[in-house]
Each structure stands twice: as structure tokens, then as C-alpha cells.
Amino acid sequence: MDVLFAIFYILIQCTWGILQTLLGFIVFLMNINNKHYFFNGAIVTVREAPSSVSLGMFVFVTSNPMKDKRVENKIPDEELSQRLLVHEYGHTIQSLIFGPLYLIVMGIPSTLWGFLPSCQKKRENGVSYFSFFTESFANYLGEKITKEKSMENAVI
């Protein structure tokens, strides 16, 4: 990772993306005893939760990615965790792009897509979580910046 990019990334997240970065910092403090590491300028926290989330420069990844028991998952667990990290990192890039509008334009629709029962029902019928616009855009951005593979249209 280029040091100049990391400095620029942190500076923009702490100014243009301050709303979500402050929320991320609060969640970070709530998870202070968990494992943390840096990934391309972002602070990653591993936690025991059913899902992952990104808030500004803070990424919270699940230690146990949910898998759909009806689908034979062809992605090994370690690779799945790395792809999920690239996806979540893509959300941090969305934060850089949308700044104070991120929570409205990306965060709320993504959360609704993830947790509304009607949306969950669609995924039960085989629609990939990552096919929704906020998620596919995060995949694209994560792959573009990191040069690593993201979630594509995985059903997990």
C-alpha cells in the first residue's frame, strides 16, 4: 500500500467522511478487546457477530461468515473471509466518494437490504446478497483498489 494513499485515505475519512468515521470509532471502542489490524489504511476489527459492516475508516468483520446451508459453498473459509474484507473495504471507498451522504445513499439501503424480512425472503429464493447496487458497487471498488477478488455474486 502506498503511504501517500494511506495518508490521503485517513485524512479524507476524518474530514469528508467524519459522520461514519465517528460512528465507526464508537463501535471500535465497544470492541476494543477484539483483534485489530490495518488493511490499506482502514482499521479492521474481527468480532463475533453474524455480519460485517464498514463505518468510515473502520471495518468490522465477522469471525464466522454466515453461509447458506442450502448452497454448497465452493469458497474455502479463509478465502471467504479475505473476499469479505475486500468487499467491506469497498464500502470504505464509498465513504470517501459520498462523504456526508454515505449513510443515506449507501448505509441505509444496504442495512435494509440486509435485514428487512422481505429482502431476506428474496435471498432465500437464491438472489445473491451481493447483487444489490450498494453491495455490487462495494465489490467493484474493493477489487479496483486492492487488486484482490471480492464476493462477486456469492450466495453465503
Proportion of residues in β-strands: 5-15%
Low-confidence stretches at least 5 residues in length (pLDDT < 50)? Answer: none
Question: How would you sum up the major sheet?
Answer: 4 strands, mixed
| Major β-sheet strand ordering | 1-2-4-3
Count the strands?
Answer: 4
Helix coverage percent: 40-55%
Structural class: alpha+beta
The shape is globular
**Topology as a string of helices (H) and strands (E):** HHEEEEHHHH
- Based on CA atoms alone, the radius of gyration comes out at 15 Å
Helix count equals 6
- CA distance, first residue to last residue: 29 Å
Mean pLDDT: 90
Descriptive account of the structure:
- 53% of the residues lie in helices and 12% in strands.
- The chain has 156 residues and is an alpha+beta fold.
- It has helices at 3-13, 18-30, 77-98, 102-115, 117-124, 133-146, and strands at 35-39, 42-47, 53-55, 58-62.
- The chain has a four-stranded mixed β-sheet.
- It is built from six helices and four strands; from the N terminus they run H-H-E-E-E-E-H-H-H-H.
- The mean pLDDT is 90.
